[in-house]
Amino acid sequence: MRSTLIAQDAERTFVLVFETGDEVIDEITGFARDQHLTAAHFVGIGALSRLTVGYFNWETKTYDHIAIAEQVEVLSLAGDIAEHRGQAAIHAHIVVGKRDGSAHGGHLVEAEVRPTLEVVLSEAPAHLRKRYDPATGLALIDLREDGS
Asked: CA-to-CA distance for 96 and 112, rounded, in angstroms?
């Protein structure tokens, strides 16, 4: 993956260009760690050779995994980065299109790029933290000033 800083005012904005074989969540997580990002959002388009999406199962409070093992177009990738337990936590959703024009989507669990993925990532001027929510079993963004 390559990246470049394209703006730096109240927030930094980067363009991330992924290459064949890059694993999306791992690369974004590493980039966020290297850039000390604790609050950001991103969007992207491109193509993938395989991916796994998740559907949040309310009854079990876990993600049911759905594997897609074929070349797809990334129609929409949207996500955020927030701090959780001192680490960058990525939360992303994706919609992909198959050869027949059908679309599939969900919570992005993992994805392998082929041939490219272009992501625009903007740092938010405020620090975001996630906290464990016992009602859902998920780490959710906590907007309270004290984080309690």
From this structure: 13
Q: How many CB atoms lie within 10 A of CB 49?
A: 16
Residue 51 exposure: Cα atoms within 13 Å on the Cβ side: 29
Select from 38, 45, 37, 40 the least CA-distant residue to 17.
45
Tell me: the pLDDT tens digits for 33-71? 999 998 899 999 999 999 999 999 999 999 999 999 999
Q: How many CB atoms are located within 10 Å of the residue 102 CB?
A: 9
C-alpha to C-alpha distance for 45 and 88, rounded to whole angstroms: 22
Contacts of 138-145 with C-beta under 8 Å, sequence gap 24+, read 138/56, 138/61, 139/84, 139/89, 141/80, 141/82
Domain positions in the chain are 2-142
Query: DSSP letter at 147?
Result: -
Segment 27-41, tens digit of pLDDT: 999 999 999 998 899
pLDDT at 46: 98
CB contact at 8 A, 25 and 92: yes
**Whether residue 115 has a cis bond before it, omega within 30° of 0:** yes
Q: Identify the CATH number of the domain defined by range 2-142.
A: 3.30.1330.80
